[in-house]
């Protein structure tokens, strides 16, 4: 999904403003910290702890308190990723499961990470039910959509792990070690491998349709408002999206651009000059037609239709042959309901629907990194 911002666009639906955590959210985060913050605490203290970078300006803010945030979300995106899901072993439930999972995450943390590699852990909604813990208020499975063709064996999961780095072999080896270490506590549910096409490091990645993907990722200030909660937590939405590359590439260039709402070469919105120019949803041709068509992906995914709310995309392409190519959509946001609202609009009339199909889905609560002993009252 490509998100654009136009200050002159009307607000059609406005999401709830970012709100302080409820008592239930605080309880959920505190009790669940027994599970995962032990697995994140060491990453917070290590040299690879996240720095906050403004990707538009290329500057890094040294004053922002990023220590409570897991790596692999808003730091620069490496070229490769392994995304995997695990389920709690069938014999583990309640307090016993909590203890076993906490110990596992301690062991995971002890595994060394190569330079530039990040590890991001999120908890799925079913895990909280299995452990008898109160789930965060906003953690819910993504509702079924009319065009979804989801394979349950390729989605969902109690524990989601995103590994990112520039060495694909090292990522695969680390993923195997995590799985081996998890034996007896977690069982593998699914895993996917993704990549970014070759590009200069400071350029927006392109997807398999050849279009820039992620142009409108939020800036540092916008991410503080729309991606990160005050305690350093966020939410991950994952979708495995099949792309019909052959049929899309068969379209004339002009028709491809009309479907997306951007020029293929520059990434600029139709009618604009530069990639990061704001899209003008009101601009019309001399014949009275909208420059950005009414069914263009960019128009329907416009952030102004959600009161300006933004999500941070960190997607990777996958290619398993001509019949199985697409996007591992990974997006981080303060409330997964934002993804649902956007996808419901796209589901109705997006011109890109002819060329994409959602085949797997997962959602997870990305706990803040921190001192697990303090969070546990120790």
Automatic annotation (TrEMBL):
Cofactors that this protein relies on: heme b
InterPro entries listed in its UniProt record: Dimeric_a/b-barrel, Dyp_perox_C, Dyp_perox_N, Dyp_peroxidase
Coiled coil: none
Stretches assigned to the Dyp-type peroxidase C-terminal domain: 204-368
Keywords: Heme, Iron, Metal-binding, Oxidoreductase, Peroxidase, Signal
Amino acid composition bias (Polar residues), ranges on this chain: 57-69
GO cellular component: cytosol
Statement: the UniProt record of this protein carries the keyword Signal: yes
Domain spans labelled Dyp-type peroxidase N-terminal: 115-195
Region (Disordered): 1-25, 38-79
Bilayer-crossing regions: none
Record's compositionally biased regions (Basic and acidic residues): 43-56
Keyword Ion transport (UniProt): no
GO molecular function terms listed in the Swiss-Prot or TrEMBL record: heme binding; metal ion binding; peroxidase activity
Family: Belongs to the DyP-type peroxidase family.
Protein name: Tat-translocated enzyme
The organism's taxonomic lineage, starting at the top: Bacteria, Bacillati, Actinomycetota, Actinomycetes, Kitasatosporales
């Amino acid at each position: 999904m490509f998100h654009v911002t136009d200050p002159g666009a009307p607000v059609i639906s406005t999401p709830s403003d970012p709100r302080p955590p409820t008592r239930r959210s605080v309880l959920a985060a505190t009790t669940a910290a027994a599970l995962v913050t032990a697995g994140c605490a060491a990453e917070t203290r290590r040299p690879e702890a996240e720095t906050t970078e403004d990707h538009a300006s290329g500057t890094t803010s040294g004053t922002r308190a990023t220590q409570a945030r897991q790596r692999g979300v808003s730091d620069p995106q490496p070229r490769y990723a392994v995304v995997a899901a695990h389920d709690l072993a069938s014999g583990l439930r309640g307090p016993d499961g909590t203890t076993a999972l906490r110990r596992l995450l301690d062991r995971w943390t002890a595994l060394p990470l190569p330079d530039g590699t990040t590890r991001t852990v999120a908890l799925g909604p079913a895990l909280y039910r299995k452990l008898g813990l109160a789930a965060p208020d906003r953690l819910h499975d993504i509702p079924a959509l009319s065009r979804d063709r989801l394979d349950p064996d390729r989605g969902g999961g109690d524990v989601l792990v995103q590994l990112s780095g520039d060495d694909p072999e090292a990522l695969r080896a680390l993923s195997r070690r995590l799985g081996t270490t998890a034996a007896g506590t977690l069982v593998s549910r699914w895993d996917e491998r993704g990549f970014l096409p070759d590009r200069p490091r400071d350029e927006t990645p392109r997807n398999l349709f050849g279009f820039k993907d992620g142009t409108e990722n939020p800036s540092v200030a916008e991410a503080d408002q729309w991606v990160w909660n005050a305690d350093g937590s966020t939410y991950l939405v994952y979708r495995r999206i099949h792309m019909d590359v052959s049929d899309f590439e068969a379209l004339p260039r002009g028709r491809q651009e009309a479907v997306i709402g951007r020029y293929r070469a520059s990434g600029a919105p139709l009618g604009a000059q530069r990639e990061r120019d704001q899209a003008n949803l009101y601009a019309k041709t001399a014949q009275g037609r909208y420059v950005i068509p009414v069914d263009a992906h960019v128009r329907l995914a416009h952030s102004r239709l959600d009161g300006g709310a933004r999500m941070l995309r960190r997607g990777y392409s996958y290619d398993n042959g001509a019949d199985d190519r697409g996007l591992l959509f990974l997006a981080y946001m303060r409330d997964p309901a934002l993804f649902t609202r956007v996808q419901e609009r796209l589901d109705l009339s997006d011109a890109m629907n002819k060329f994409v199909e959602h085949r797997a889905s997962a959602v997870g609560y990305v706990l803040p990194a921190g001192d697990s002993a303090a969070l546990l009252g120790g």
